[in-house]
Specification:
Blueprint (H helix, E strand, L loop, with lengths): L23 E2 L2 E2 L1 E2 L10 H13 L10 H20 L8 E4 L2 H16 L5 E5 L8 H10 L2 E5 L9 H7 L4 E7 L11 H10 L3 E5 L11 H4 L3 E5 L10 E5 L1 H4 L12 E4 L4 E3 L13 H17 L1 H19 L5 E4 L8 E6 L4 H10 L2 E2 L1 E3 L4 H7 L4 E5 L6 H17 L5
Parallel strand pairs: 3-15, 5-6, 5-7, 7-8, 8-9
Antiparallel strand pairs: 1-2, 4-10, 9-10, 11-12, 13-14, 14-17, 16-17
């Protein structure tokens, strides 16, 4: 099979909504398997941003003219959509950021600087993305707090017994990824929240890899903070979300100064707006927020049942195909996981495998995936990562398997 022709007749009912799938790569139809890095955008999201810029663009919040009021309503409507999407108590608990990374840095520089000091401990897992590791390292260096790393077992699952031993009254924050971007592991965040709260710790959940795969009810989850990025859930780049319980946001100082985050300014001092505007200094990502709202509309129209059914069927097929590729070694064997699979092919460097697949029109991610400490823990230089989404098809998975067999032969890998 060398020619893939994306169409509504293929086994993804979502495929025709994504125009980029018609792109040719090196003469081949695009097979996009880099969804854990960033998902493609449906036409509804592209149209929402284009329509805003074409018909109702203006800056938000401060203008009294009609276009500004329209833009403000659209921007705040997107905030309400996010709140409803994760079942927050109020839209005021939704802070727009540039993405997950900025959301975590905001929390570290505002809440962390205020409430974490010398002798305190922050717990993260050994599978964290750099975005949920480096900001806490920096905070610990400033504050004198200690960063503790919860280890993993050989299957790539969190060592919950170690977590139990490490939690103590010194623990002020547990910052934990819900789904690993490398291993695909789904952590039992509900249990983690309960355990952390028993010792008085607050909990941040990094949901960047969860948001496109599973519904989130933040009230039943009980986490104090949660963050994610729009571009991983079919929305635009340049916008993400920090959810914070209102009682926490109210106590947090701003971390950037400028327009819109103020209540009143004198030459010598200023008072600050209530959350969430307190944390949104300057002109916000208006069009991107509107695009995020459109992405939420799409997910709700597609339904979680249909999304999860499609991904589960594709992932099962992917495992069957990979099991027959000579010399292929899967990385991560957690029982609870999403449709993400990292692997190595013989002794070949992941970059070489990725470049050869790219020549065949297949987009996969290669490298350390912003998880260098985990790669060192596993004793490998990096991985090839295939990550699936709703627009992928069984035909594409068969083509990936065919292509990996071809790559193995080219590299002299037989077993």
């Amino acid at each position: 099979m060398t020619d893939l022709k994306p169409s509504a007749s293929q086994d993804s009912p979502f495929r025709d909504e994504f125009p980029e799938l018609l792109v040719k790569v090196h003469g081949h139809d695009l097979v996009y398997l880099d969804n854990a890095s960033s998902t493609l955008k449906p036409m509804a999201v592209l149209d929402a941003e284009r329509n805003f810029y074409s018909t109702s663009y203006a800056n938000v919040h401060r203008g009294v003219h009609h276009l500004s009021q329209m833009a403000t309503e659209a921007y705040e409507d997107a905030r309400r959509k996010v709140a409803n999407f994760i079942v927050a108590r109020s839209a005021n608990e939704i802070v727009f950021t540039k993405g997950t990374t900025e959301a975590i840095n905001l929390l570290a520089n505002s809440w962390g600087t205020t409430f974490i000091g010398s002798g305190d401990e922050i717990l993260v897992s050994a599978m964290e993305h750099h975005a949920n590791l480096v900001p806490w390292q920096m905070l610990c260096q400033r504050s004198g707090a200690t960063l503790q790393i919860v280890p993993l077992n050989d299957a790539g699952e969190l060592d919950l017994q170690a977590l139990d031993r490490m939690l103590s009254p010194r623990t002020k924050l547990v910052a934990m990824v819900w789904v690993s971007n490398i291993l695909g592991t789904v952590n039992p965040v509900e249990d983690i929240v309960t355990k952390a709260h028993r010792v008085g710790a607050k909990v941040l959940v990094d949901a960047a890899q969860t948001i496109a795969h599973r519904p989130i009810n933040i009230q039943s989850l009980g986490a104090d903070f949660l963050c994610f990025s729009s571009h991983k859930m079919f929305g635009p780049t340049g916008i993400g979300v920090l959810y914070g319980r209102s009682e926490h946001l109210d106590l947090m100082p701003p971390w950037q100064g400028g327009g819109d985050m103020i209540r009143e300014v004198e030459y010598s001092e200023a008072t600050y707006a209530d959350p969430p505007l307190r944390f949104e200094a300057g002109t916000p990502p208006i069009a991107q927020a509107i695009g995020l709202g459109a992405a939420i509309d799409c997910i709700e129209r597609w339904s979680w049942q249909a999304i999860q059914s499609q991904e589960e069927a594709l992932y099962t097929h992917l495992q069957e195909v990979l099991d027959h590729v000579p010399g292929l070694r899967r990385i991560g064997y957690a029982k609870d996981r999403v449709a993400v699979q990292s692997f190595l092919l013989g002794d070949a460097h992941p970059y070489d495998v990725g470049m050869l697949l790219d020549a065949m029109g297949i987009a996969v991610r290669t490298g350390h995936h912003c998880g260098q400490p985990l790669m060192k823990r596993l004793g490998i230089p990096g991985t090839v990562r295939a990550s699936l989404s709703i627009y992928n098809t069984h035909q594409e998975i068969e083509y990936l398997g065919h292509s990996l067999h071809k790559v193995a032969r080219m590299l002299g890998i037989s077993s």
